[in-house]
Amino acid sequence: MSADHAHDNWHQHSAEEGAPQHEHGSHMTVKALGMTFIIMTVGVILTILILVAFFNSYVGKYKASKTEGTAMMEPAFNAKLAAREKLNSYGWVDRDARTVHIPLDKAAQRVMAEYQAASN
After folding, report:
1. Do 99 and 93 contact (CB within 8 A), yes or no?
2. Of all helices (H) and strands (E), which one includes residue 101?
3. Cα–Cα distance list, 44 to 2, 32, 33, 40, 52 (Å)
4. What's the pLDDT tens digit per position in 43-81?
5. Which residues, other chains included, contact 93 with Cβ-Cβ below 8 Å and sequence gap of 6+?
6. Sequence spans of domains, the chain
7. How far from 15 is each of 18, 19, 22, 77, CA to CA, in Å?
8. Lowest-pLDDT range, 1-5, 15-19, 46-50, 87-91?
């Protein structure tokens, strides 16, 4: 310890270090601290509100999918898809009678062409 000042040599600085600096952060600005507090509080509240809205939306959709379910309508839905696919494709209705089915839009065009030819 230094006998003159009652502290150890750690506090002694050499000339190579240059002039001592002022302490950092010794003065606080109440306005800056207040604004930081307000911004952080508003940010946390907004984050919580967004998370609550997202959670409620997700839970609502999840509950609806679990309680309503799609098991009852699945056979009818698959039958509807199969019928729609058949209406939009070419295929045999009866091979022996040589009857075919054609896509619905093509059939409608043929019927309109026949009616137009018959009216002329």
Report:
1. yes
2. strand 99-101
3. 51, 18, 16, 6, 12
4. 999 999 999 999 999 998 888 877 777 677 888 999 999
5. 99, 100, 101
6. 28-69, 71-120
7. 6, 8, 17, 88
8. 1-5
Q: Residue 34 has which token pair?
A: 């207040």
Contact 100, 92 (CB under 8 A): yes
Token output for 84 = 């729609």
**Lowest-confidence range among 23-32, 62-71, 92-101?**
62-71
pLDDT of residue 37: 97
What would the two tokens of residue 63 be?
A: 């509950």
